[in-house]
Specification:
Blueprint: E1 2-7, E2 12-19, E3 23-31, H1 33-37, H2 44-66, E4 75-81, H3 85-102, E5 106-110, H4 111-117, E6 129-134, E7 139-144, E8 150-155, H5 161-171, H6 178-186, H7 210-225, H8 232-257, E9 262-266, H9 273-282, E10 287-289, H10 300-312
Parallel strand pairs: 1-4, 4-5, 6-9, 9-10
Antiparallel strand pairs: 1-2, 2-3, 6-7, 7-8
Helix pairs in contact: 2-3, 4-10, 5-6, 5-7, 5-8, 6-8, 8-9
Bound molecules: 5'-O-[(R)-(carboxyoxy)(hydroxy)phosphoryl]adenosine (KG4) and zinc ion.
Length: 329
């Protein structure tokens, strides 16, 4: 089964062709990061316009790189939410045009399920599976007893992991995009500052990161006020270890309670090296899987893989599909 998929929920315009819910034949990703460096973050209106500019090129390029034509495509898939409405709309409209023009069935995909299914690229996950979704907009623990069976057991009460990386980066003077640069700088740093591990010992699976962000800000302010020299790489590393410890503890708790066989860590911040090391070294008896780095951030390939399993479940949408800024799993 060949699926042509579209993703435009935030600041990446992406179109992909995937095969049988496992193989990526092409995955064109046009990132808007360079445009938003100047603004220090995503500007929704500009993002929408950039999607419009890039989507036709991405579509043609995805087909060409897969060496296929629309005749070969069985389904058209698209991210329906959550995300920025204007940005989602471009991908949805493009997918509808293609689906109508070539008479192909249309499948809407939840962006978070897309992130989870990035772990299924050339990989079979084992159930019960625990997905730790850590992106710019979400931090969630999801138990899956089978494909397309999502049971969200916890999420963040405030900032998402990627969001707090971006905000802490700004506090310590690292330019946009904060997350990846903070990762790079923190690699040479030492965790010499103790920062709080919010809700580490709570009984549920909730997360909270805004207190950690404030604590990092307070730390920097007090070091500066007292004229104490510091290196941002050490603050970055101390912050990353605090985040990682919370993620590890909650993940381990869920592994035990739900008899988990495999953990998949997905979303933009699953690219983080300290989070990766901490989870791999801290989880012993259960397989821990991360998507390839290029499939951690937003991309259409993961949407195509997720769509395959939705189709297998008999769930197909139609041309009335609409964008949803908020959408639960
Ligand atoms: O999944 P994603 O591309 O978009 C959303 O669905 O939100 O995630 C983007 C987030 C950003 O907040 C970015 O700073 C973060 O992922 N991120 C990272 C790294 N690479 C991207 N955070 C920590 N370490 C990284 N290496
Ligand atoms: Zn995402």
């Amino acid at each position: 089964m060949y699926i042509l998929s579209f993703e435009s929920s935030c600041d990446e315009t992406s179109v992909a062709v995937t095969k049988d819910g496992k193989y990526v034949l092409s995955n064109e990703v046009l990132s808007q990061i360079d445009i938003f460096k100047e603004y220090g973050g995503v500007v929704p209106e500009i993002s929408s316009r950039e999607h419009v500019k890039g989507i036709t090129y991405a579509y043609l390029s995805a087909l060409k790189n897969a060496n296929l034509t629309m005749d070969d495509i069985d389904y058209v898939a698209v991210t329906e939410g959550p995300g920025l409405i204007g940005s989602l709309l471009t991908g949805i409209n493009a997918s509808k045009i293609v689906a109508l023009n070539y008479n192909k069935p249309l499948v809407g995909v939840n962006h978070l399920s897309g992130h989870i299914y990035a772990a299924c690229i050339e990989h079979d996950i084992e159930f019960p599976c625990l997905a730790l979704v850590i992106s710019g907009g979400h931090t969630e623990l999801v138990v899956m007893k089978d494909h397309y069976d999502f049971n969200k057991i916890g999420s963040t009460k405030d900032d998402a992991v990627g969001e707090v990386f971006d905000k802490v980066a700004r506090i310590i003077g690292i330019p946009y995009p904060g997350g990846p640069l903070l990762d790079k700088i923190g690699r040479d740093g030492k965790a010499i500052y103790h920062l709080p591990r919010p809700v580490l010992n709570s009984k549920d699976y909730s997360f909270s990161f805004s207190g950690l962000k404030s604590a990092t800000l307070n730390l920097v302010e007090s070091l500066e006020k007292d004229g104490i020299k510091y290196e941002i790489k050490d603050i970055a590393r101390s912050f990353e270890e605090a985040v990682s410890e919370v993620l590890l503890k909650k993940t381990k708790k869920a592994i035990e309670e739900y008899n988990i066989k495999e953990v998949v860590v997905v979303g933009g911040s699953a690219a983080n090296s300290v989070i990766r090391e901490t989870l791999v070294s801290g989880i012993k008896d259960v397989k821990v899987t991360f998507p390839h780095l290029k499939y951690c951030g937003d991309n259409a390939a993961m949407i195509g893989i997720s769509a395959y399993y939705k189709i297998k479940k008999g769930e197909i949408d139609d041309i009335t599909l609409s964008p949803k800024s908020r959408l639960d799993l």
